[in-house]
Write a structure and sequence with these properties.
about 375 residues, 10 helices, single chain, binds iron/sulfur cluster, 3 domains, TIM Barrel
Length: about 375
């Protein structure tokens, strides 16, 4: 058990911690400067400093991650909480988070962990094998790297955990802002990533404005690669008045999904509540439900088939209906879920439903293999 904050430790002690590991993706720029290649910020980091997210530090010309297996939060959550509505509906994922983020959105809904530097916390290490042993003792079906941005804190850890989880028959999932480099994404896929819930925060320009210059184009690129590599993807947009609730912005996102990815990709429009520094930036206390309904209508007008509203608690907008005959396929009310299908087809009209099911007999039914 470690009690001291990492930032107060001498470098020799920091290097001895099990949560400090050499980073997987970086390059030596000479003169003791390194470049981190984990996310598209591609930080150039001088000796003794950390990158933008503060999870990665240059020590003597080598880049280290400071949060390997460093758990700030853990819980066994319904898939619907990610949210995944078309991936193992009704099943669970053992979900972990750590510290920090590579974005600094002033409305962050998880700011208690994502806006903390690991240097200001004491490490709380869980070995990959221990994580798997917990999974075996509970009713769960997948890993979920989530809560804060998992790429910056758990990239290396997830590369170790995911193959172990796969061997035991579990699925692997990420909840992410999608800002990884292509190299990082390639490694995640090769190490067993099955599904990703990706945040589309806003349209070009607006996205950069609120995320310290991060370009949403990289997020779209990564989502496209994920789909090409058969990763199940669901998209989420936290709809915030004055940030991304204009008709123009919502239509742009809907068109990108339809034209660039395909109308089979689910889009979750979720309700925002004031958090972190939102008030300082003049943002309102929450998103009116009417705004969410308008966003839903826009998405439908643009031809998207799988649109859901989050944090609205209305079964009409949370449940899955057949887009052809309108019959109820999966009933949802918050986390009460009744799955009425065990094949990826509507039992009433035969319409193909883009969904991956885990049946009670343990069989995985994937719509892409039908
Ligand atoms: S992971 Fe962190 S250190 Fe690396 S490029 Fe991204 S923000 Fe910079």
């Amino acid at each position: 058990m470690w009690k001291k904050k990492r930032g107060n430790l001498p470098i020799s002690k920091l290097l001895e911690l099990p949560t400090t590991r050499e980073a997987r993706l970086w390059s030596d720029l000479g003169g003791n400067r390194v470049q981190c290649l984990t996310c598209e910020r591609r930080c150039i980091i001088p000796e003794g400093k950390t990158g933008f997210c503060e999870t990665r530090m240059n020590i003597d010309g080598v880049l280290y991650v400071l949060t390997y297996g460093d758990i700030s939060s853990i819980s066994n959550n319904p898939m619907e909480k990610k949210p995944f509505f078309h991936f193992l509906p009704g099943k669970y994922a053992l979900t972990i988070g750590s510290w920090s983020c590579n974005f600094k959105c002033p409305w962050c809904q998880n700011w208690e962990i994502s806006m903390f530097s690991p240097l200001d916390t004491a490490p709380n290490y869980m070995a990959p094998q221990r994580f798997i042993s917990i999974m075996k003792r509970i009713n769960t079906h997948a890993t979920s790297f989530s809560f804060n941005e998992p790429l910056v804190s758990f990239f290396e850890y997830s590369l170790d955990v995911m193959p172990l989880a796969k061997k035991q028959g579990y699925f692997n999932t990420y909840v992410t802002n999608g800002y990884m480099t292509e190299e990082a994404l390639d490694l995640l896929i090769k190490h067993g990533l099955d599904a990703a819930c990706v945040n589309i925060k806003a349209c070009p320009g607006t996205h950069e404005k609120w995320t310290n210059g991060a370009k949403v184009e990289y997020v779209w690129r990564n989502v496209k690669i994920m789909l090409e590599k058969k990763i199940h993807v669901e998209l989420v947009t936290l709809v915030i008045p004055g940030v991304n609730d204009s008709e123009k912005c919502l239509r742009y996102i809907a068109r990108q999904i339809k034209d660039d990815l395909g109308d089979f990709v689910p889009w979750h429009l979720t309700r925002y509540f004031e958090a972190y520094r939102a008030r300082e930036y003049g943002l309102p206390p929450n998103t009116p439900i009417e705004t969410l309904r308008k966003a839903y209508k826009i998405a439908k007008e643009e031809g998207l088939k799988w649109v859901y509203l989050g944090n609205v608690w209305d079964p009409q907008y949370e449940s899955t209906f057949c887009p052809n005959c309108g019959k109820l396929l999966i009933a949802r009310y918050i986390y009460d879920i009744i799955v009425h299908i065990d094949e990826p087809r509507c039992p009433h009209c035969g319409e193909l439903i883009p969904i991956i099911l885990l049946r009670s007999d343990g069989k995985v039914i994937d719509w892409r293999s039908t």
